[in-house]
Write a structure and sequence with these properties.
mainly alpha; 178 residues
């Protein structure tokens, strides 16, 4: 069984770029129709910050369980936290990029936008990037700490049944590749 790897930084940069392209496209489309620029509602960055808080709570609880030692970690909970962290990385990158795209469209304007237009865009960028960074940190928390016994660190220990020690392992091993 091949060990799981961390989410690629290339994937995060691609998600950020796609979000920025969508934000720019939306603003240019609205400008071509003679409409006001899109200003995201303040509930968008608020929800992203709530997701950051939720991810931090689950991640720090998992970290406390890992520090307690063998047997304290529920592997299913660790996999769920890992999946939440990876989703947070991608969603945060897309929303951060979307906010960047919205802000980039305001740069070329001859008349500066009011604070009520660019502030929600800036808050979306900050909240999206905070979610992505929090996801990266929590993903690193989910990796298996290095063990003293080489038998417990090989991949066969993950496939043992209830009689094996492998059922207490957190979500994934760091394969060394970033």
């Amino acid at each position: 069984m091949r060990p799981m790897q961390r989410l690629s930084q290339l994937a995060l940069w691609a998600a950020l770029s796609i979000g920025a392209a969508i934000g720019l496209f939306v603003q240019f489309f609205l400008a071509s129709r003679g409409l006001a620029p899109l200003s995201p509602p303040l509930s968008m960055p608020l929800m992203l910050v709530l997701l950051v808080a939720l991810l931090l709570i689950f991640g720090l609880r998992l970290r406390q369980q890992i520090r307690r030692g063998t047997g304290a970690v529920n592997p299913f909970q660790a996999v769920r936290v890992l999946a939440l962290a990876r989703a947070g990385q991608l969603v945060g990158s897309v929303f951060g990029g979307f906010g960047i795209g919205l802000l980039l469209s305001l740069i070329g304007r001859t008349v500066p936008a009011s604070v009520s237009v660019w502030l929600p865009m800036l808050l979306t960028v900050i909240a999206g990037l905070a979610l992505a960074i929090c996801g990266v940190i929590i993903e690193r928390i989910c990796q298996i700490p290095p063990g003293d016994d080489p038998e417990t660190t090989d991949s066969s220990s993950l496939s043992r049944g209830a009689e094996g020690a492998g059922n207490d392992q957190p979500a994934f091993r760091d394969g060394g590749a970033d």
